[in-house]
Amino acid sequence: MRSLFNGDLPKLVMFDLDGTLVDSVPDLAFAVDDAFRSVGLPEVGEANVRLWVGNGAEALIRRALAYVSAEAGAAFFEQVFSGFLSAYSHCLADKSKLYPGVFETLEALSKLNIPMAVVTNKPIAFTLPMLSELKLSHFFAEVLGGDSLERKKPDPMPLETIMSRFSLQPEHVLMVGDSSNDITAAKSAGCSVVAVSYGYNHGESIYEAGADKVVSSLKELLRTDSFSS
């Protein structure tokens, strides 16, 4: 990480949530399938949901309905979307788990007094309870969901908003995410960006997406750059 900041540490690290800190697909898939069953549609399954995560709840449901049929999307969206929101609100962290190395990395950054924020496309009504249930809330000084502002990633607005709140210039800020949305937003905002290889990214390789660095675990940042001052 120091290599991205001329030997220094960043003054702020922003993290994506789904696919970066948390593998949330098992619970998302359960809620999608529950909503589909409630209107008599076939389940789409966890493997497909992994390909559709990353642009918010509405986009997830539209992709799932389109997978079933174009007619289903037109006829069932409102009912299925409402059912999904209800189901997911009751299973946010039933099967969702932190990826290996996440907690240790957040602890290390916290001990270095580096401020951290979450910038996700997940609705804020789901984001805050999930962070609480997974015992992550105390690490983050700021949290923005996909519906917190007028625009969400890949637009740079959420990242620029967080930087403004900390009165920081982008050259001192790092974004960490798992998808092209995170990379595009970071590049547009002028931030350095590290991508994780284990996330979702719509089923596409993250290595070709233009990140400054790709890691297979957040702990690689700790080992590679030795956060000690």
Structure characterization notes:
This protein has helices at residues 25-38, 46-52, 57-68, 70-89, 102-111, 124-133, 157-165, 180-189, 219-225, and strands at 12-15, 22-23, 97-98, 116-119, 142-144, 173-177, 192-196, 213-215. By secondary structure, the protein is of the alpha/beta class. It folds into 2 domains: 2-24 and 96-225, HAD superfamily/HAD-like (Rossmann fold), CATH 3.40.50; 25-89, DNA polymerase, domain 1 (Orthogonal Bundle). A 6-stranded parallel sheet has the order 5-4-1-6-7-8, with helices on both faces. Helix 3 packs across helix 4. Mean pLDDT is 93; it is low at 225-229.
Q: What is the general shape?
A: elongated
* Succession of helices and strands: EEHHHHEHEHEHEHEEH
How much helix, percentage-wise, in residues?
40-55%
- Radius of gyration based on Cα positions: 18 Å
CATH topology of the largest domain: Rossmann fold
Terminal CA distance: 13 Å
Helix and strand content put the structural class at alpha/beta
Largest sheet features: 6 strands, parallel
Secondary structure: number of strands: 8
The low-confidence parts are: 225-229
Any guess at the CATH architecture of the largest domain?
3-Layer(aba) Sandwich
CATH superfamily label of the largest domain: HAD superfamily/HAD-like
Mean pLDDT: 93
Record the strand order, biggest sheet: 5-4-1-6-7-8
The fraction of residues in strands falls at 5-15%
Please tell me the total number of domains.
2
Tally of helical runs? 9
CATH class category of the largest domain: Alpha Beta
